[in-house]
Every structure is written in structure tokens, then in C-alpha cells.
Amino acid sequence: MDKEPITSQGLEKIKKELVFLKEKKRPEIVSAIAEARSHGDLKENAEYHAAKEQQSHNEGRIVEINDIIARANVIDITKILNDGKVIFGSTVYLTNLDTNEKIDYKIVGKDEADIKKKLIYFKSPIGKGLIGKNKGDLVEINTPAGVKNLEIKDVKYI
């Protein structure tokens, strides 16, 4: 079983999701199944089948989260001496040299990645292109959307 790096914030987030799924969602689904069952014939009962499918998805996600937690290798970036190097968990402040756009990304594990929240997977093209580089470096990264020319303005371990 391979360990998967995760930030301490990412681990807290999935633990909260697990509690929600087990303590709130699971009882709601069980109740919906009981309610649908009371309506009689299960073969043609759409509510019953929908609730059973929801139960299947919920239980699958619970198993998935338990697996993530079991494989978690928590990286607490705040305990690492910041020498300006881009590492897992660091927040990187960039300038796109082609558009002059300023952007920042936090480099995270697979289960935390969310581009809308500026959380990028460390094995993504941008993540791989930034890891190991230093504050002040100019970086050229091939992405599915084309080549990006970036300057690393700052690296924070927060």
C-alpha cells in the first residue's frame, strides 16, 4: 500500500467529510429506504431504488475516505525550514510572463487538488514543473493548454 502525501488541512477536511457521511448522510439514507419500503412493491418503486443507489455511493465514498486516511502521509509544511524551494505543501506565488497575470498555487496531494481553489496536484504538469524550483526561478511548463512561462516570485510554507 503506497503512502499518499496530504497536507494537514487536507486530512482534516476529509475527516470532517467522513463524519458527515457516517453520522448525517447514512441515517438520512436509511430513513429514506425505510420510508420507500413502506410504500409497498419494491420492483416498481423508484424512490426505493434511488435511495439504495444513494446508499451505495455513500458507502463507497466512506470506504474511499478510510483508504485515503490509511494511506495518508501527512506533511506539515509549517514545521519545515523555508529556504525558498518549492516543495509539497508550499504555496507558490507566480507571474505569468506571457500575460503578466499574477497567480498563486498551493501544491497538494491527489485527494485535495481543486484548481478552482488554486490547489494543484503535485504530479500535474504545473505541479511537476514547479517542485524543486526556487524563488526567483524562471520556469517553462508544458501544459495541455500550451506552454506557460512563469516566474516564481515567492514561496511560502503556510
List keywords for this structure.
single chain, 158 residues, alpha/beta, Helix Hairpins, Chitinase A, domain 3, 2 domains, five-stranded mixed sheet, two-stranded parallel ribbon, 26% strand, elongated
Description:
- This protein is an alpha/beta fold and 158 residues long.
- The chain has 2 domains: 4-75, Helix Hairpins (Orthogonal Bundle); 77-156, Transcription elongation factor, GreA/GreB, C-terminal domain (Chitinase A, domain 3, Roll).
- 39% of the residues lie in helices and 26% in strands.
- The protein contains 3 helices and 7 strands, in the order βααββββαββ.
- A 5-stranded mixed sheet has the order 5-4-3-7-6. Strands 1-2 form a two-stranded parallel ribbon.
- Strand 3 and strand 4 form a beta hairpin.
- The longest helix has 30 residues, at 8-37.
- The chain is elongated.
- The model has no long low-confidence stretch (mean pLDDT 94).
Could you give a quick summary of the protein structure above?
The protein has two domains: 72 residues, Helix Hairpins; 80 residues, Chitinase A, domain 3 (Roll), CATH 3.10.50.30. With 158 residues, the protein is of the alpha/beta class.
